[in-house]
Write a structure and sequence with these properties.
By secondary structure, the protein is mainly beta. The protein has 2 domains: about 5-90, Elongation Factor Tu (Ef-tu), domain 3; about 100-170, PRC-barrel domain (SH3 type barrels, Roll). The protein is built from 2 helices and 13 strands, in the order E-E-E-E-E-E-H-E-H-E-E-E-E-E-E. The protein has a 7-stranded antiparallel β-sheet. Strands 11-10-9-8-13-12 form a 6-stranded mixed β-sheet. The longest helix is centred in the middle third of the chain and has 5 residues, at about 75. It is elongated.
Length: about 170
């Protein structure tokens, strides 16, 4: 895990003329995005760069942040859409049976009968519960992807991070 990072938020539009930027947090609670010591900004076709948070405050239904070295609106506009990442080693330990999304991504998924369904490629947050997006290695009767609700004990029967696999009580044709 040394040096591994995970995404905890995303920068939005510039706010004001002094270099502040809107922030979307993926943490729970949302303000925990500001609890991490070092942010790394990453984006498509951009080299990851380390930034220091100088100040942040609530704004409307979200937050705005002032970053070291970003002193005007033009510089802030260049950051729009960049992901905020932190070192996995900074994340707090979770109780037994709870997982960070990055831990579930890439796991092999089988149904309770042993049939290989595919790999978790990402997760989605919905109003009712989170959803695993599982992509089959080859086209199956249900297609290339199936959506499986993250419902421990009801649907998700077991997760074995060491073995890199998960067992679900789910019929992808559902």
């Amino acid at each position: 895990m040394a040096g591994r990072r995970t995404t905890v938020g995303r920068l939005g539009a510039a706010w004001g003329i002094k270099g502040w930027v809107k922030v979307s947090s993926f943490t729970d609670p949302a303000e925990n995005v500001f609890e991490y010591g070092g942010w790394w900004l990453t984006g498509e076709n951009r080299e990851p760069r380390s930034v220091k948070v100088l100040d942040w405050r609530p704004h409307s239904k979200g937050w705005v942040v002032r970053l070291d070295g970003v002193t005007d609106r033009t510089a802030a506009e260049q950051l729009a859409g960049m992901d905020i990442q932190v070192a996995v080693s900074e994340l707090p330990e979770l109780p037994e049976g709870e997982y960070y999304w990055y831990q579930l991504e890439g796991l092999s998924v089988r149904d309770t009968g042993g049939r290989e369904l595919g790999r978790v490629v990402r997760l989605m947050e919905t109003g009712a519960n989170d959803v695993l997006v599982v992509r089959a290695e080859k086209a199956q009767s249900w297609g290339r992807e199936c959506l499986i609700p993250w419902l421990p004990e009801q649907v998700v029967q077991s997760v074995d991070l060491d073995a890199g696999q998960m067992v679900v009580n789910w019929d992808p044709d559902y």
